[in-house]
Design goal:
Elements lengths: L1 H11 L5 E5 L6 E10 L10 E3 H7 L9 E5 L5 H30 L5 E10 L2 E5 L4 E4 L15 E12 L2 E7 L3 H11 L1 H4 L3 E9 L3 E8 L4 H6 L4 H9 L4 E6 L4 H8 L7 E5 L4 E6 L4 H5 L4 H10 L2 E6 L1
Parallel strand pairs: 2-3, 11-12, 14-15
Antiparallel strand pairs: 1-2, 2-4, 5-6, 5-8, 6-7, 8-9, 10-11, 13-14
Helix pairs in contact: 1-3, 4-7, 8-10
């Protein structure tokens, strides 16, 4: 009916007062025009208004000014013209609905991990096929040093799904910290079941990730590592060799900071909760290990705990 209304606009020049009725049983199409009854000398637009004298002649004697009257105006050759116009509008509507369905389908996958197929490089960006739509893995969302071959299957984190006139635009990432978190949720059944909780995560993509886990009654770190390291190794392989430190979370900042600095051994931690700073004392032979290569271990521990950490040698 909407598409036939568009066809009427071509036929009559206006469609504000035109109604199209399609009989749901027989498929018969009828077009009606609605007119407002006005005084004979007050007609401003004869496509929308009708004089009281004409209205009484054409419709009924008791018509009054201000009433709405309607008459059938189905054109003779309406079928052919309307069919062409209707086809265009219907096809357009179907495309819009398909786009909407795609958008809703991928919106549900926002902040989840999905598998895509590498198609080609477009400059430094990578075109990824996600099934029914394509996504672009931007250079800023890639892990430095990672290279993909066409037709290779890779896992991606869906950062955002936007609706655009050309279909859903999907932003994917492999460098996002949540990517590691979702991989652990997929791999570790205890996290899926809610027995183990990921409290915080700090990541330097392509190099190292620290993840803090807590639990009530099982070994949280052991659950994430798996038998002979099977679970964590599966994630390390997906991340192309990125190192992962899994530490126990604690609601006592001193213990949490000590755990976060592993594998270094810590002698003493003194904290200032108001300033969110911590002073850590380590043995002389542990200093370089605590700070890490180019300060990475200390930097990730600070991100993980939310404290500014100052490491001192005993």
């Amino acid at each position: 009916e909407n598409s036939l209304l568009a066809a009427c606009k071509n036929q009559f020049g206006k469609s504000e007062n035109i109604r199209v009725n399609i009989d749901r049983e027989t498929g018969e199409v009828k077009v009606f025009a609605d007119y407002e009854v006005v005084e004979d000398d007050m007609i401003e637009d004869d496509a929308l208004q009708i004089g009281i004298t004409e209205a009484k002649l054409r419709f009924r004697d008791d018509v009054e000014v201000g009433e709405k009257v309607s008459t059938e105006v189905t054109p003779k050759n309406f079928g052919r013209i309307a069919a062409q116009k209707a086809k265009q509008v219907v096809v357009q509507k179907i495309r819009e609905e398909e786009r909407k369905v795609l958008y809703v389908q991928y919106l549900e996958k926002e902040r989840e991990v999905i598998t895509g197929i590498v198609q080609r490089y477009s400059g430094k960006n990578v075109c990824i096929n996600l099934g029914r739509v394509d996504a672009i893995l931007m250079e800023s969302e890639q892990v430095r040093g990672e290279h993909f071959r066409p037709t290779e299957h890779i896992k991606l984190y869906v950062v955002e799904v936007k609706d655009t006139p050309k279909g859903p635009r999907i932003t994917v990432s492999r460098s996002h910290p949540e990517f590691v978190k979702r991989l652990f949720e997929e791999e570790v059944t205890e996290i899926q079941d809610g027995i183990v909780t990921i409290e915080s995560i700090a990541r330097e993509a392509g190099s190292r990730t620290k993840i803090a886990v807590s639990t009530v009654d099982v070994d949280a770190v052991g659950a994430c590592v798996g038998m002979n390291g099977s679970r964590v190794n599966a994630i390390v392989n997906e991340l192309r060799g990125e190192k992962i430190d899994i530490v126990n979370w604690s609601d006592m900042p001193e213990i949490f900071i000590e755990n976060a600095l592993s594998p270094a051994v810590v002698m003493d931690v003194s904290i200032d909760e108001y300033e969110k700073t911590a002073r850590v004392i380590v043995p002389e032979n542990q200093l370089s290990l605590a700070i890490g290569k180019e300060g990475q271990n200390a930097r990730l521990a600070a991100k993980l705990t939310g404290y500014k950490i100052d490491i001192k040698c005993e």
